[in-house]
Amino acid sequence: MKAMTLNDYGTEAAFHEADMPRPQPASGQVLVRVKATSVNTIDTMIKAMGKDLPLSPDLPAVLGMDFAGIIEEVGEGVTGYAVGDEVYGCAGGLADLQGALAEFIPADARLIAPKPKTLSMREAAALPLVGITAWEGLERAGVDAGQKVLVQGGAGGVGHLAVQLARHLGAEVSATGTGDGQLSVIEGYGARPIDFMAERIENYVAAHTGFDAVFDTVGGANLTNSFAAAALNAHVVTTVALSEIDLSPAHFKGLSLHVVFMLLPMLHDVRREVHGEILAKLSKLVDAGAVRPLLDEQTFALTQVGDAYARLQSGQAIGKVVIEV
């Protein structure tokens, strides 16, 4: 099969086209012919940092976590799937799991679900990692109807789905962004757009008397802003906690801090079936018209994976960057 591999790690490392043996599905796996795969921030981090991250695969590496495609073979012990089924999932590209930057990926059947019928392969490939992350974060925060929710980075990969899911749950949603493009996306989802470059945190908190839940997809130093925006005894969810930060503001408000790291089931083979269950529920919501992925306007083929990574890292993309295989 054709695949794009990394022979070295680093910011300047290049992807190389390679011919590799077609994988065979192990027990509990299905072999999927990949039709599309999307690029996530964690993919670019693995490429740049390599073995400084404990989840990076050995070289030569085939990255790519998200995918949508068609089942070609069904491994021993797999039920509920058949050859020809259209599926999507997040099942490779780290540790010893081959990624989706290839024509085929052997995927744990617990980590996939039927593809939303109303989406193209390209659209479906944009959903798994960010969709699961948004779902888990809102669930951890106990978001429910009538609550006030702030999503930091509401036009980003995780953020745009967190906004839509929170709205579906009946929450009153505000979301930060900047520039006409991002603010328009947020407003289009029925949320109140907040230009973080023009409006100080104190002003929009004063206008909304604090938020019951803050979903921070920016993280790092921005967590301080999330603590400031949260109401007393509120929940703060972050997907980026790789930093040292003063937790005193969280202490004096009695905040609950939730760190969402959705790769844990893949890394440790713990409760992988939960991801499949979330994807199945997400698929139904998509087909019901409650949620829709946002895709960047630029398109990329498998041999253009380097350009796709650069597009995501440029900060110019609005929506998920997707590679068609």
Automatic annotation (TrEMBL):
UniProt entry tagged with the keyword Oxidoreductase: yes
Highest taxon, organism lineage: Bacteria
Keyword entries, A-Z: Oxidoreductase
SUPFAM superfamilies (UniProt xref): GroES-like (SSF50129), NAD(P)-binding Rossmann-fold domains (SSF51735)
Occurrences of domain Enoyl reductase (ER) (ranges): 10-323
UniProt-listed SMART domains: PKS_ER
Transmembrane regions: none
Entry EC no(s): 1.1.1.1
Top EC group: oxidoreductase
GO MF entries: alcohol dehydrogenase (NAD+) activity
Record-linked PANTHER family: ALCOHOL DEHYDROGENASE RELATED (PTHR11695), RETICULON-4-INTERACTING PROTEIN 1, MITOCHONDRIAL (PTHR11695:SF294)
Protein name: Alcohol dehydrogenase
Organism: Limimaricola variabilis
